[in-house]
Amino acid sequence: MTDWFDANIVLIQSTFVSLLLALSIQVPLRAGVFSFAGIGSYGVGAYTAAIVTINYEWPAFAAIAAGVVIAAAIGYLLALLLSRLGGLYLGMATIAYSLIFSVFVINGGELTGGAQGLFGAISDLTTGGVIGVTVVVVVLLALSERGRIGRRIAAVREDPELAMSTGVPVLAIRQLSFVVSGALGACAGAMNTLLRSTVSPDEIGFQLVVLALTMIIVGGSRSWLGAFIGAVIFTWLPSVLEFVGDWQTVVYGVLVALAAIFVPGGLLGVLQQGYRRWRRRALPIGGTA
Amino acid sequence: MAQNLINAVTLGSLYLLFALGMSLAWGTIGILNFAHGSIFMFSSFTCYLLVQHIALPMPLMILIGLVVGAVLSVLVQVLAFEPIKRRNPDPHRAELQILVGGIGIAGIPLAVAQHLTKSVPFGYSKSTFEVEVLHLGPVQLTNVQLVILAAALVLAGGVGWWLRSARAGLALRAIGVDAEVAGILGVNRRRLALGTMAVAGALAGVAGVLLTYYLGSIAAESGDAFLLKAFAAIVLGGIGSVGGAVAGAMILALAETAVVTQTSGMWVDAVSFGLIFAVLLLRPRGLFGRREVRRT
Amino acid sequence: MTEDVLVAEDVAVHYGGIKAVDGIDLTLTPGRICGLLGPNGSGKSTLLAAITRLVPLTRGRLVLDGKEYHRAAARSLAKRGVARTFQTVRLLPDLTVLENVQIGADLHGRKASGVAEAIERTGIGEFSSAWPGELSYGMARRVEIARALAMRPRLLLLDEPTAGMNQAERKEISQLLRDLREEGLAQLLVEHDVQMMVDTCDDLVAMNFGAVVARGTPHEVVQDAAVREAYLGKRGRAHA
Q: Looking at the structure, do residues C99 and C182 belong to the same domain, yes or no?
């Protein structure tokens, strides 16, 4: 078992980092907020961690925390600026923010290492630390999907007017989703940088947007579990597809397209529908109150 | 200075051809086609493949690009977007699925082209066409630029006229305002949707071929780069408006040219992204867009 | 005499050139059911939206428990005891009936009670585990009422709560509202079924074109000539 673990350590680490990245989009989506600013936050976290580690030799958790705090603050700022936007427009504005950031780091001179990026961000971050943080995050998010909080967030997503009329703080929840999204994205980016000890503009450009979106669409956007499914699939799929050889990327694109067309709720949606149908057959309509 | 202006307008014309179709589709039938960039690139790529075997003249190349673009666009609509719309009655959900579906589909032509070109840029050196330069006083104008300007003028003007005057054009605008009512009034939504996507694809195909002639070569990844700039142009000009697409494309091209000539080339991309962000922040409907930008 | 819960003074809502609501006065008192009658397009739902702060006022005052609130946020009304149902069924599709009702109780925190009672009073107990998509229209409307009741309001605003119900169900709801009235709830009822309005309401306000055309006891209003002409003439009989 540990042999397999060691042999695939990079992929395992990537899975958890990707999970956090996917969550940074899934969380606002769950509140009905089409914000992809989590991707930009990934860049913010990645570069912040690199900079403080290289220049000031901060320990891992401090470096990550720095990125998280900055990105969360930016998230709040975005929430205030973009509050009037909805749907696709908000998505585009937040994608633009993510891409603007990558242009900035290319032109950041010595601080950000320009087009080459930064390297030598050596830190004491362990795989165990990464897994630990991710597990804590997932537990907290899973709890927020149930009970009173879960219901209220669902109301914000499905019917904001109704939510308001039942006293749900719609605006506050939306703003919070921006902040959480920033924190999660930054956490992912920072951890990835510290594990690889490098960061470069290529990593945080449009390709990252595509990756994050496809994880959510294929996995499912309703719950952290969907993000997990997406992260696992897209971290491990390339190695699975290796046997396909040169046409890997084509197969990849076809799979994503097929998922978007035929599986609207993502794989999670498929599982949930199946579960519901099973429940309906197992229990009569009455059930217990 | 005047030379820069000419070059900027040429660039703007290319942006316009590319963005016009996308803006049209988005503003009328509500399809934001992320595969548009791939279609643009692949139309050009198809011409490249053909011209490796037969030396073709430019007009024919443009025509082929037009047809390939139209066909690809219609295929995407029929095979992907229509099924998505059928399975997702909620418009918000459908929008997101179409967006991501487009992203997924975009990867396919990209991967094919990357594979076949081994990521080396491709061009039309084997075409019969030869670049000629005209001198008009202080400025130089190549025949390619002339063709581009003419194409943009004719095609954009044609589309604009058609939307205002032709019955089908008015029907399309009706769909853009209220699809259901338009359907009740007898507008054949499906046919118009397919037609719109065909035109959008055709325009993109023409733009792709012309850009390849203009730059000498393009890469498989050029489609995505153009995609983002098209966004900026559309968002700035306002969705669904021909005049808006013209304005947005030209302003973007002028701004980018100014940035490139005044500063180091590295900030160019920030122009388009910055424009997108700024416009959405300050005036979401753009210069000529309709009032209702959807709020939550 | 009990104090008025809600007073609307000269309320107007204009959209550009359209005067959806134009100068309405309304008073809602604990232990009384006020009915709002009027044809489609008369402005009833807009008035309701204005009162619940979902659309802004062009003119007028809104007072709740003596405090003006026409600038308050919509969501502040719930905590102050105002609950409503909507003209269209608005249940969250991914939550069960029980969870949908719990949304109402969620207003009061995690350990809120009142859900079981709300479910029982609206008679939806056997559907607690069902999904909204499986319910009949009338049953879905009851869930909405249950959700509103779970908020433990002092003022209940109902927008066509019995649409899609048969006569028997309608009588049940009418009885429920009257029971709530005896418990001191203030209510505003918007309905189409004139008989139900006459049976249930203490006061009736008839609207047309955004303005009040008649007000008084149900019997008075139903016999008013202007009301008959505008509305009842098409609906047929009403009892004296």
A: yes
Token reading at A232: 């696992």
**C40 domain-assigned:** no
pLDDT under 50 in chain A at which residues?
Answer: 286-289
Q: Which pLDDT score, from 0 to 100, does residue B17 have?
A: 92
Q: Which tokens is A149 given?
A: 């909080």
Task: Give the domain CATH number at C68.
Answer: 3.40.50.300
Interface test with B, best of A92, A107, A211 (most B CBs within 10 A): A92
pTM for the structure as a whole: 0.86
Number of domains in chain C: 3
Cα distance between residue A70 and residue A95, in whole Å:
18
**Residue C137 resides in a domain:** yes
Structural domains of chain B, count: 1
Residue B258 burial (CB count, 10 A): 13
Q: What is the pLDDT of residues C183-203, one digit of tens each?
A: 999 999 998 788 889 999 999
Does one domain contain both C67 and C89? no
User: Are residues C109 and C177 located together in one domain of the fold?
Assistant: yes
Residues C144 and C172 reside in one and the same domain:
yes
Confidence of residue C176 (pLDDT cuts 50, 70, 90): very high
Domain of C65?
1-26+45-73
CA dihedral over B222, B224, B225, B231, signed as positive or negative: positive
ipTM, two decimals: 0.88
| C134 neighbourhood in chain A, CB within 8 Å | 285
On whether residue C31 sits in a domain, the answer given is no
Q: Give me the mean pLDDT over the B12-18 stretch.
A: 93
| Cβ distance of A147 and C147 shorter than 8 Å | no
| Region of residue C131 (phi > 0: left; psi between -120 and 50: alpha; otherwise: beta) | beta
Cβ neighbors of C20 (< 8 A, separation 6 or more) are C13, C14, C43, C46, C210
Say how far residue A34 (Cα) sits from the centre of its chain.
13
Q: Look up tokens 């942006």; give the residue.
A: B15
- B60 to chain A nearest CA, in Å? 29
